[in-house]
Amino acid sequence: MNSEAELRQRVRIAIDGVAAPRPWLVGAVQATLRRQRRLPRCDRGRPVVARHASGVIAGQGLKIVGALLVLLVLASTVVYGRLARDAGMQSHPTGLSAEQAQLARLEKRPLQLPVMPADGSCPVTPMTSDVQPYRVPDGTPPEPLFGPGPVYASGGTEVDSTTAQYWDVDFITPPGVAGPVLIRGRQLDGRLDVVFAGPFAAGDVVGSDTVRGKRMDLHREALLLAGARPSNSEALPGWGIWPVRQGLADVSGGATGCVGFQVDTPTSSEVVVVSYLPRVAVG
Amino acid sequence: MATELRDGNPASESVYGGNKMTSVLAVDPLYAARSGDAAAFGLLIEPLLTSAYRLACGMLLDADAAEDAVQEAALKAWRKLDRLREGSDLRPWFLGIVANECRSLRRSSWRRVLIGLPDRPATMAAGPEPADLDLRRAVGKLRARRRMVVVMHWYLDLPLREIAVALHSSEDAVESQLRRGIADLRRQLREWETQ
What we know:
Low-confidence stretches of chain A: 40-59, 72-96
Order of helices and strands of chain B: HHHHHHHHHHHH
Oligomer: heterodimer
Helix content of chain A: 10-25%
Structural class of chain B: mainly alpha
Distance between the termini of chain A: 50 Å
Largest sheet of chain B: none
Distance between the termini of chain B: 45 Å
Mean pLDDT of chain A: 77
Helix content of chain B: 55-70%
Largest interface: A-B, 54 and 68 residues
Radius of gyration of chain A: 24 Å
Radius of gyration of chain B: 20 Å
Number of helices of chain A: 4
Strand content of chain A: 25-35%
Mean pLDDT of chain B: 77
Shape of chain B: elongated
Number of strands of chain A: 9
């Protein structure tokens, strides 16, 4: 079984062996749906708007209090983050002084992302298809990677909270990249900065969120220390595969889905623009 | 299947005619479904149920579990119908819900059951070839996202663009997941061949 076509055919046969026809399925689904109570639109997954005047005023008052609380929490986390950093408590691993100096220089580089074209078309960066960082069987074509290099990215599983949209990606560093790798991003068609979470998120904490029941801090940067690659048996020698959760911490802005990333190393700076499908805000 | 019933419905020519508007609304299952008619929604998704079941079989490798997943997904889809944007294609939207339902089932009791079995999926047709068993096991071992993409593209023949819509991803990311899934399948089969 060598060719992809052969493998595909055998996979189809293998799954066909499980998928015995279920001629009753259509009727069963329709019967289940017919048994559902006819629901008015406002009861089907949307919050009901309070129509009573005092209820609306009370609701708005609560919203203002809630917003003030959020601002207070954000302000305190930003202050804490800055204090922690000034005290030398880095939020990224093993900060050597030379790397800290390099990182400070990288952070001073302004974001130089493209401007959104007037026609609204996202200037997506072409994928790279001739780089192979993974241990794969001989003859396996490289998968397309985001970015022109030297740093690449792969993946993009979406995980969402109630208000935000995140993606779990792998950033990929080749053997020639040394020193810190700083990643920052911003919507090209909106107002949001990309936020990062996980062990390689760095810089000030700008908020927090809960995804799948787990609380996480949100940072404005991701930092990869190329000399401290995470262990990964899938990677070829010298290559680093860095799992990073990145996203947009508010999906109510109505952007159409265009984000630019700037990836800075001591000897390079690359811009990667991606197009994503914005999630519709809940509620 | 695009939600073009209104445009494709010959009665829509008279949509602005006074006493014919009611009949247009009555024969537009999407409008009726959005208005809360669950039976109308059942008619809408009927053409998709075979694909949904095949997707669930590929994800769960168990026909009974697949049937449960499709039933549950149909209910969830009806309850979430308001989130289907105007003009959006119903098929990727619904199949995305089916895929997520399968993923939830895998994470809960079904996953524990399958892991506990000695390298065999829970439901098997009679007398499969050993190579087919290996492939089925290999598909079962794929990570959820890669399995979704492999099953949707290789088994359901969905184009990558449509899979991207179903999975709220980009076409490039979907292709990336497909390539990695294929590589994982090959690697797993090679490991078993050399054992």
